């Protein structure tokens, strides 16, 4: 129950699953099902009705009229969930540093390669939100990487609001903190001002100076309203924390303003693991924050630190991101998970960081993140272990509908000269 | 906001401490036994005890505490003082903001508490002032923190230590502000970028006055309310705090005019500001009485020196004498290094201030107590008085001495830094050192690094970390035996006769135990050769007797060639000259080759040399014998492999070799196995890349066709005989492909020895007795321009003026009696101006070389001349005096320490150093 959204989620989801009449019954025969909750089932069937999972198990009968997706000898897993990504935006970061009123709805490009890649890599849900370069960058939304319009893609139309302590654009760390504090202070004052005015209004109304049928109508500046929403916990702040040095400031913000935050950690935060555990805020490791080569400023010595391992050892749960482009390997979920496992993180924890944990952070864990009865049927069929480099995503089903098949992936065929399909 | 930061920090620091007590830390209660304890820069306690409880100084006394619960820190031969306080630094990680006035910026906000400041701690810095930015009019508030420790509350000494104001040039250059209106309308238009006040010095004070007046007027309401664009407001509260006297004012002012205005502005506000880094100190000195001043002084003058080369330069610069001038004028001076990189050298900074006129105690205070006072944190740090934080340093020596290093840094009674040294420096101190060049040093020191003498002399500063050996004897260079056979005899095997082609250096083993007795007797270098036999009697190698490995053992592999010559007559020198002549021809051959090679490589030898037909072997031509070039085609590989077969038919049996090649690359040759030739069919087994393969081929006229079974695949092979007859090896057949490259002459080791002589890399040692022979040798060698030494030369002893300053090797018999008279050959020759070397000519007996010399001294030789004959004399003779023979800077560190005079029969060897390593230490042996 980390996040609450302005529009009821179930509504949004069912609205999406309207065009399924023709194939309202789907059965996936799986060699193995990784449910995402830790359980595995051999030779099981996942039965889907109207886009939701109605049965999972090895004793489930396949109804005669069900459309069958054959994944025998293959692995069926829940699609991945990204708790924070700036992917798929076209021009998503404003040069102006304080633009809380912006929303990615105006920037998401459904034809972006990011979404195509996401399907190919088994990502079914993504919280798209402005990047780390803007102090208060605007609001995000939760989408699925399938659809021709933003409306088609929408899962939750209002996600979190992006805040960043990265001292980019010439501002120092101190200045960045001050600006963020000032923006919040201002919202506090606007709220107090409004409350005072309303009180006066009511008093005057009670005194009869104002007609009794008149309501207090003055509202805060629309441009500032999202920050007031943040103060009132109507929206969650996704705060980018570039390094451990900023963590005390996060504590101050939580203490002073009572805002609800999800921390998006940069690579150099591992030193503050203890403080982060004390804070107990949900954590997303940014795409480049799993593994970090630290160079000692004085000796020049280089050490590789796995932040994910440090946090896992400190008993902190976290979600991880994948990159949009940048360093090639980091855009693959398997690489991100395998990197963690290489450093000693338990594979189940690695898997959770892309499934159940991000779903919980986004508050959509009732729908996504695992293969359980009642959940939305977002599944991927894998040719092998999710951690292996040689594994392909064979098929992706979103809301029970097959939205990706490797055999029909034109770009892959082009890349492999057509021979890939037969293997 | 100040209280808020602290509570947040508190929330952090307490939580982990409760949940996870750190097991590695010792208890915070200590008793530090101090050789010298600087409680303050002026209060010094000798042999004192500093007791620390709960991270604070609990007591100071000269008696050891009796409490059982204290952990003892032994610094009884060290100096202990308070941790250093840097009164300025850039460690806040904060640059300059766009806005010119940001009083509410706090430097602490930018500070990274989790960063490790190893180098600063290694220099003894425990607390630093964090600057909030340097180039804005009011950049914010500076803070003071400790640079190590887990307790963040404890680490913050002052969150708001001072409000900083910058006067002069730097704060006139703030960039224009552009804060565009997001949705411009007629009422709220898009504003152009705004210039910021002040843009010249003239408006700085008035801007400041206006700001402070506004703050005063705002009073309690200095904290703004209501919605407004954030950029329009200044937080006035810190300015008001300054006026109320609750927050110190720190003004950075460089030039005299700026300093004057700073002091004037302070007067207007009714306070004395802290001056930050004034430069025109000579001119402002009269105003500095009781004014706190922070100097950022240069430590390392690696960049351009302060002052610069331009006399007309008006820009004031930081100079090391500023602190002293200000201190003499009565200012309260605090010092900080100008650059973060200089934090490790803060003690040296104080030392430099003394050099340029500051009192030592004031300079020490400038980096400790006064710095703490100026920063307003003297109740916590800066001294080690009872009740202060236990931030202290353990120093290797007096605080301001050049070689003194911080060995330990403690913060709040916990270790924050400990120095470990991996310096490979050896310092030997002795009351008398014979350098070897005739000079004697009393109470001297020899510094040894990397196997070489780095420095020698009296009053040498011993670098920190050096191993010091205090000897009470006499130091001489390591002895050289100019003629020895040590190391050449084996178990039950006598020393072989010498010859010029022996590679002596290669056969000697540095770990040979027979070297040990010689080493222990002080012989560190031996000129080793086989036993003399005949005219050319053997190569001489110069080796160390106690080297760590073969490479460091060899001083010179051909140091000399020994000859035995006693011919008399007109052509007596002929054989000797003939040897030298041979050597010259050998050199000519090589020179010719080198020239031809150079020409060839420069492409001058354009005309290819005709391939000479190899002489046909006188054998009957048969269909097989010869060289075959074959091509093998493996269908899967898609390209052909080359195979060269060199075959020989013997009856029906076929032998030879095969070589596989991929393009340019050739694999090693492999022998042909089970080869046979019957009825026109050639069968054999071949080894390719460790795979056995079988070949069957039908042979025609100088060609064959067949198949090869290899790796489970069948390949076709076709061969063509390129050369019939001689079954020469492929190597020699290769040389027939002559590309005109000149042929290298063979290396003749015997001639290499001669070449070394002629090229003056080696010395001819001629064992000679009679006068005519001596003359003949001298004449021949001089004419041939060869460096030579006479060994023996009995007749020369009788008529020393026969040659001018000859080099003579004497031994083992030095003193002989003739007709009742004692003839002391080395003494006589040395007196006559010869360069003498005393040698043993022995094997195990090399160890007694000092006794040989002793004998000569007993019968009249000057001990200095004897020492020369065991050290620099032989070194010069063999042209290796650039490395050994005396204890001069840059030479090999080979030395011996005797308990008394080296040639006193009762003296013992105490220590032997060879190649900078202590190879014998009698004190250890006795333990």
Task: Summarize this entry quickly.
Chain A has 423 residues and is α/β, with parallel strands linked by helices. Chain A has helices spanning 9-16, 113-120, 150-153, 173-207, 225-231, 247-257, 273-279, 307-313, 333-342, 347-352, 356-362, 410-415; strands spanning 25-34, 40-49, 52-57, 67-78, 80-85, 123-128, 136-139, 141-143, 154-156, 161-164, 237-243, 261-268, 283-285, 291-295, 302-306, 319-320, 379-382, 393-398, 401-405. Helix content of chain B is 23%, strand content 30%.
Structure in words:
The complex is a heterodimer of chains A (423) and B (927). Chain A has 423 residues and is α/β, with parallel strands linked by helices. Chain A has twelve helices and 19 strands. In chain A, α4 crosses α5. With 927 residues, chain B is α/β, with parallel strands linked by helices. Chain B starts with a helix and ends with a helix. The chains are: A alpha/beta (423), B alpha/beta (927). At the A-B interface, α4, α6 and α7 of A face α1 and α2 of B.
Strand content of chain B: 25-35%
Low-confidence spans of chain B: 1-26, 225-232, 614-619, 727-737
Low-confidence stretches of chain A: 1-22
Basic shape of chain B: extended
Distance between the termini of chain A: 44 Å
Number of strands of chain B: 43
Order of the strands making up the biggest sheet of chain B: 5-6-7-8-9-10-11-12
Report strand order across the widest sheet of chain A. 3-2-1-4-17-18-19
Q: Strand count, sense and closure of the main sheet of chain B?
A: 8 strands, mixed
Q: What are its keywords?
A:
heterodimer, A: 423 residues, alpha/beta, 6-stranded mixed β-sheet, 12 helices, disordered N terminus, B: 927 residues, 8-stranded mixed β-sheet, 43 strands, 23% helix, extended
Draw up the topology in text:
The complex is a heterodimer of chains A (423) and B (927).
Chain A: H1 9-16, E1 25-34, E2 40-49, E3 52-57, E4 67-78, E5 80-85, H2 113-120, E6 123-128, E7 136-139, E8 141-143, H3 150-153, E9 154-156, E10 161-164, H4 173-207, H5 225-231, E11 237-243, H6 247-257, E12 261-268, H7 273-279, E13 283-285, E14 291-295, E15 302-306, H8 307-313, E16 319-320, H9 333-342, H10 347-352, H11 356-362, E17 379-382, E18 393-398, E19 401-405, H12 410-415
Parallel strand pairs in A: 1-4, 5-6, 10-11, 11-12, 12-13, 13-16
Antiparallel strand pairs in A: 1-2, 2-3, 4-17, 6-8, 7-10, 8-9, 14-15, 17-18, 18-19
Chain B: H1 2-19, E1 30-38, E2 44-53, E3 56-61, E4 71-82, E5 84-86, H2 107-110, H3 118-122, E6 125-130, E7 140-146, H4 152-155, E8 156-166, H5 204-218, H6 237-243, E9 249-252, H7 256-269, E10 274-276, H8 281-284, E11 292-297, H9 322-328, E12 332-337, H10 346-355, H11 360-366, H12 369-375, E13 392-395, E14 406-411, E15 414-418, E16 425-434, E17 440-449, E18 452-457, E19 467-470, E20 474-477, E21 479-484, H13 504-507, H14 515-520, E22 523-528, E23 536-544, H15 550-553, E24 554-564, H16 574-601, E25 626-633, E26 640-650, E27 653-662, E28 665-666, E29 670-671, E30 673-678, E31 681-688, E32 691-699, E33 703-710, E34 713-724, H17 730-735, H18 749-758, E35 763-768, H19 771-784, E36 788-792, H20 794-798, E37 807-810, E38 815-818, E39 821-824, H21 825-831, E40 835-838, H22 849-858, H23 863-870, H24 872-877, E41 895-898, E42 909-914, E43 917-921, H25 922-926
Parallel strand pairs in B: 1-4, 5-6, 8-9, 9-10, 10-11, 11-12, 16-19, 16-20, 21-22, 24-35, 35-36, 36-37, 37-40
Antiparallel strand pairs in B: 1-2, 2-3, 4-13, 6-7, 7-8, 13-14, 14-15, 16-17, 17-18, 20-41, 22-23, 23-24, 25-26, 25-34, 26-27, 27-28, 27-29, 27-30, 30-31, 31-32, 32-33, 33-34, 38-39, 41-42, 42-43
Helix pairs in contact in B: 5-6, 10-11, 16-18, 22-23
């Amino acid at each position: 129950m980390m996040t609450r959204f302005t529009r009821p989620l179930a509504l949004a989801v069912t609205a999406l699953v309207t065009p399924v009449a023709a194939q309202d019954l789907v059965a996936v025969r799986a060699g193995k099902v990784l449910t995402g909750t830790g359980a595995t089932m051999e030779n099981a069937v996942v039965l889907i009705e109207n886009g939701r999972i109605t049965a999972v198990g090895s004793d489930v009968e396949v109804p005669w009229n069900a459309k069958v997706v054959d994944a025998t000898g293959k692995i069926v897993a829940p699609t991945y969930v990204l708790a924070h990504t700036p992917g798929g935006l076209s021009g998503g970061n404003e040069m102006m540093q304080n633009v809380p009123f912006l929303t990615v709805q105006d920037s998401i490009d459904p034809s972006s390669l990011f979404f195509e890649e996401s399907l190919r890599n088994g990502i079914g849900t993504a919280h798209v939100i402005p990047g780390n370069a803007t102090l208060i960058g605007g609001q995000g939304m939760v989408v699925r990487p399938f659809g021709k319009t933003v409306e088609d893609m929408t899962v939750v139309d209002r996600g979190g609001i992006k805040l960043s302590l990265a001292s980019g654009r010439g501002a120092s760390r101190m200045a960045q903190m001050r600006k963020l504090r000032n923006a919040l202070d201002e919202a506090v004052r606007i709220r107090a001002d409004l409350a005072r005015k309303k009180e006066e209004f009511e008093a005057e109304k009670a005194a009869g100076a104002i007609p009794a049928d008149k309501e207090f109508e003055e509202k805060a500046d629309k441009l500032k309203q999202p920050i007031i929403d943040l103060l009132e916990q109507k929206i969650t702040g996704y705060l980018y924390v570039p390094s451990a040095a900023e963590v005390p400031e996060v504590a101050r913000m939580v203490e002073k303003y009572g805002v609800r935050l999800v921390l998006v950690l940069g690579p150099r935060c591992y030193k503050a693991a203890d403080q982060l555990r004390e804070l107990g805020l949900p954590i997303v490791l940014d795409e480049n924050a799993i593994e970090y080569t630290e160079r000692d400023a004085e000796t020049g010595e280089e050490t590789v630190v796995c932040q994910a391992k440090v946090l896992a050892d400190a008993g902190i749960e976290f979600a991880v991101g994948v990159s949009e482009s940048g360093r090639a390997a980091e855009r693959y979920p398997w690489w991100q998970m395998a990197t963690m496992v290489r450093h000693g993180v338990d594979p189940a924890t690695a898997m959770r960081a892309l499934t159940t944990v991000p779903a919980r952070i986004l508050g959509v864990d009732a729908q996504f993140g695992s293969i359980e009865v009642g959940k939305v049927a977002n599944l991927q069929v894998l040719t092998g272990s999710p951690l292996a480099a040689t594994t392909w995503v064979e098929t992706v089903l979103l809301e029970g509908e097959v939205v990706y098949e490797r055999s029909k992936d034109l770009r892959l065929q082009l890349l492999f000269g057509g021979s890939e399909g037969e293997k | 906001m100040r209280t808020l930061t602290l509570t947040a920090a508190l929330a952090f620091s307490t939580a982990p401490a409760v949940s996870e007590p750190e097991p590695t830390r010792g208890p915070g209660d200590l008793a530090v036994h101090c050789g010298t304890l600087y409680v303050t820069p002026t209060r010094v306690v000798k042999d004192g005890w500093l007791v620390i409880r709960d991270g604070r100084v609990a007591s100071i006394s000269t008696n050891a505490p009796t409490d059982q619960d204290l952990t003892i820190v032994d610094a009884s031969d060290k100096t202990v003082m308070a941790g250093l306080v840097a009164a300025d630094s850039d460690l806040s990680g904060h640059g300059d903001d766009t806005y010119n006035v940001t009083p509410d910026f706090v430097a602490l906000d930018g500070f990274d508490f989790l960063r490790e400041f190893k180098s600063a701690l290694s220099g003894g810095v425990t607390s630093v002032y964090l600057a909030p930015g340097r180039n804005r009019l009011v950049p914010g508030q500076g803070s003071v923190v400790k640079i190590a420790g887990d307790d963040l509350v404890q680490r913050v000494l002052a969150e708001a230590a001072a409000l900083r104001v910058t006067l002069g040039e730097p704060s006139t250059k703030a960039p224009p502000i552009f804060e565009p209106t997001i949705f411009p309308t007629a009422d709220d238009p898009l504003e152009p970028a705004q210039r910021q006040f002040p843009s010249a010095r003239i408006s700085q004070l008035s801007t400041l006055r206006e700001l402070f007046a506004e703050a005063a007027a705002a009073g309690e309401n200095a904290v703004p309310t209501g919605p407004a664009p954030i950029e329009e407001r200044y937080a006035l509260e810190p300015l008001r705090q300054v006026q109320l006297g609750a927050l110190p004012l720190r003004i950075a002012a460089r030039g005299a005019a700026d300093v004057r205005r700073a002091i004037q502005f302070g007067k207007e506000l009714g306070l004395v500001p802290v001056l930050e880094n004034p430069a025109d100190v000579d001119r402002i000195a009269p105003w500095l009485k009781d004014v706190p001043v922070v100097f950022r002084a240069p430590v390392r003058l690696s960049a351009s020196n302060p002052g610069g080369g331009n006399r007309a330069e008006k820009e004031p610069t930081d100079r090391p004498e500023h602190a002293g001038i200000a201190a003499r004028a009565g200012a309260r001076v605090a010092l900080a290094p100008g650059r973060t990189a200089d934090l490790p050298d803060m003690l040296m900074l104080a030392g430099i201030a003394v050099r340029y006129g500051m009192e030592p105690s004031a300079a020490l205070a400038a980096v400790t107590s006064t710095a703490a006072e100026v920063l307003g944190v003297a109740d916590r740090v800066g001294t080690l008085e009872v009740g202060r934080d236990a931030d202290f340093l353990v120093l290797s020596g007096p605080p301001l001495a050049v070689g003194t290093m911080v060995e330990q840094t403690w913060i709040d009674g916990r270790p924050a830094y400990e120095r470990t040294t991996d310096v490979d420096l050896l310092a030997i101190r002795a009351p008398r050192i014979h350098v070897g060049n005739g000079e004697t040093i009393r109470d001297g020191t020899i510094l040894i690094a990397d196997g070489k003498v780095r420095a020698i002399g009296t009053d040498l500063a011993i670098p920190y970390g050096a191993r010091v050996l205090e000897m009470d004897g006499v130091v001489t260079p390591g002895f050289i035996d100019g003629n020895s056979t040590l190391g050449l005899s084996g178990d039950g095997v006598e020393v072989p006769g010498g010859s010029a082609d022996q590679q002596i250096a290669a056969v000697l083993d540095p770990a040979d135990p027979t070297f040990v007795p010689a080493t222990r007797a002080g012989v560190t270098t031996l000129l080793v050769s086989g036993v003399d036999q005949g005219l050319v009697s053997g190569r001489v190698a110069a080796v160390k007797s106690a080297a760590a490995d073969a490479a460091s053992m060899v001083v010179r592999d051909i140091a000399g060639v020994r000859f035995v010559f006693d011919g008399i007559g007109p052509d007596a020198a002929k054989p000797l000259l003939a040897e030298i002549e041979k050597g010259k021809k050998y050199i000519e051959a090589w020179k010719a080759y080198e020239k031809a090679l150079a020409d060839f490589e420069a492409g001058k030898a354009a005309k290819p040399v005709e391939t000479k037909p190899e002489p046909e072997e006188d054998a009957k031509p048969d269909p097989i014998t010869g060289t075959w070039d074959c091509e093998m085609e493996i269908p899967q590989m898609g390209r052909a492999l080359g195979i060269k077969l060199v075959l020989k038919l013997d009856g029906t049996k076929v032998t030879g070799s095969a070589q596989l090649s991929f393009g340019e690359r050739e694999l090693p040759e492999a022998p042909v196995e089970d080869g046979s030739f019957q009825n026109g069919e050639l069968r054999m087994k071949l080894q390719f890349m460790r795979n056995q393969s079988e070949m069957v081929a039908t042979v025609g006229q100088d060609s064959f066709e067949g198949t090869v079974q290899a790796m489970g695949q069948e390949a076709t092979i076709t061969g063509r005989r390129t050369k019939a007859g001689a079954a020469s090896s492929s190597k020699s057949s290769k040389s027939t492909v002559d590309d005109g490259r000149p042929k290298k002459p063979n290396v003749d080791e015997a001639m290499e020895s001669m070449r070394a002589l002629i090229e003056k890399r080696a010395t001819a040692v001629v064992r000679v007795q009679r006068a005519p022979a001596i003359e003949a040798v001298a004449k021949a060698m001089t004419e041939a321009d060869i460096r030579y030494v006479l060994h023996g030369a009995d007749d020369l002893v009788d008529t020393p003026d026969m040659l001018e300053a000859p080099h003579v090797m004497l031994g083992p018999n030095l003193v002989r009696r003739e007709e009742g008279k004692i003839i002391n050959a080395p003494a006589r020759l040395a007196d006559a101006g010869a360069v003498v070397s005393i040698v043993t000519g022995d094997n195990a007996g090399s160890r007694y070389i000092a006794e040989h010399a002793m004998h000569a001294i007993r019968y009249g030789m000057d001990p200095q001349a004897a020492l020369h004959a065991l050290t620099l004399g032989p070194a010069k003779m063999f042209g290796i005096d650039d490395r050994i023979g005396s204890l001069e800077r840059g030479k090999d560190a080979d030395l011996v320490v005797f308990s008394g005079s080296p040639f006193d029969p009762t003296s013992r060897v105490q220590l032997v150093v060879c190649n900078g390593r202590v190879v014998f230490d009698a004190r250890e042996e006795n333990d």
